[in-house]
Amino acid sequence: MSDFAKTKKLFHMPDGVIYLDGNSLGPLPLAARARVVDMMAAEWGNQLIKGWNSAGWMLQPRRIGDRIARLIGAAEGTVVMGDTLSIKVHQALASALELNPERRVVLSDNGNFPSDLYIAQGLLKSLDKGYTLKVVEPEAVEAAIDESVAVMMLTEVDYRTGRLHDMKALTEKAHAAGALTVWDLAHSAGAIPVDLAGAKADFAVGCTYKYLNGGPGAPAFIYVAPEHQDAARPALSGWLGHEAPFAFDLDYRPGAGIDRMRVGTPPIIALAALDAALDAWNGIDMADIRRASIGLTDLFIAEIEKRCPELSLNSPRDGARRGSQVSFRHREGYAIMQALIARGLIGDFRAPDSIRFGFTPLYIGEAEVRAAVGIIEDVVNNRLWDAPDYRKKALVT
């Protein structure tokens, strides 16, 4: 049984704060702070450039990738770290398209994170081969899978509503139609059980600064199914994806297996923080995470609907059909969220009208949920959000 009372002590939380925004940025793991200080002093400081060998820096993308693989149902040697999620989306989609060269449709939905759609639009335009990006309603994805689709590219958990796609069923349908799949796990990894191998996913990508608590700008990961690893050509042919980076050949030869998906120099300080953050997952069962998450989100929904009639649920009511986040709609959602933050309850706002809350059992329990509902009830029912300062838009919402 996972011990969430123990994991809660592993994170720094400012006094007077209820943090329901780990679906945007996880809080600071205490071990990460200590690990980065030690890495900078003992490794970078004392070993200097020798650290690439003596401290194992060059091996970190694979080693940490294997740690994340356990959390997403992937085998060792199928996940590697590096670069940003945007780059990994580009890599995965470009490689998948080359593996299915006779088709010209990329299928996605309008619940996908907009950045993924931007990347697809840019890539397809640059390829200039008559590709079409077909974007449908989330509920229409299954019916839209046909023999014209080259790649189905979806975010498993809708960033705005928390709606959860059935990865296994949709992947089976895509494969039956001859399509490949790219899954974005930005709101899945560390939030819900994921079984990439069991679902037979072709490619997957994800970030590590949300539920995995790697810190702002923490590096992303990419998964490539074993059967594709030696056939997938990396469109971004970076020097660390080369078969022999330090041979300094002028021509690119892709490395073996997942290593070919490496691109640039790994961010060693950020990887040190992430490596320490992943220690919080030692001994944690994702099934326990899921049970606790559904319990917390169900409680939150029931209490908000009972006490705040002005708010309209914008997430699936059935816990089995949503990730570990809940959003409610209100025409003054932005101002409401600013008023909540001013009172120590941190969530976030997503246009046009959703206030969004993430629930992470590693550090959030029933007491925090009930306290959060009390603050929301006060702010909404007493119109405490109705002040000019709460309507001033910040750069990040």
UniProtKB/TrEMBL annotation:
Keywords attached to this entry: Hydrolase, Pyridine nucleotide biosynthesis, Pyridoxal phosphate
Cellular component aspect of the GO annotation: cytoplasm
GO biological process: anthranilate metabolic process; L-kynurenine catabolic process; L-tryptophan catabolic process to kynurenine; NAD+ biosynthetic process; quinolinate biosynthetic process
Positions annotated to bind pyridoxal 5'-phosphate: 85-86, 113-116, 155, 184, 187, 209, 239, 265
Residue list for modification N6-(pyridoxal phosphate)lysine: 210
Cofactor(s) of this protein: pyridoxal 5'-phosphate
Source taxon at top rank: Bacteria
Enzymatic reactions: 3-hydroxy-L-kynurenine + H2O = 3-hydroxyanthranilate + L-alanine + H(+); L-kynurenine + H2O = anthranilate + L-alanine + H(+)
InterPro entries (alphabetical): Kynureninase (IPR010111), PyrdxlP-dep_Trfase (IPR015424), PyrdxlP-dep_Trfase_major (IPR015421), PyrdxlP-dep_Trfase_small (IPR015422)
Pfam families: KYNU_C
Catalytic activity, EC: 3.7.1.3
Pathway this chain belongs to: Amino-acid degradation; L-kynurenine degradation; L-alanine and anthranilate from L-kynurenine: step 1/1; Cofactor biosynthesis; NAD(+) biosynthesis; quinolinate from L-kynurenine: step 2/3
Top enzyme class: hydrolase
Any GO molecular function: kynureninase activity
PANTHER family: KYNURENINASE
Function statement: Catalyzes the cleavage of L-kynurenine (L-Kyn) and L-3-hydroxykynurenine (L-3OHKyn) into anthranilic acid (AA) and 3-hydroxyanthranilic acid (3-OHAA), respectively.
Family the UniProt entry places it in: Belongs to the kynureninase family.
Assembly with partners or alone: Homodimer.
Name the UniProt record assigns to this protein: Kynureninase
Protein source organism: Neomesorhizobium albiziae
Protein encoded by which gene: kynU
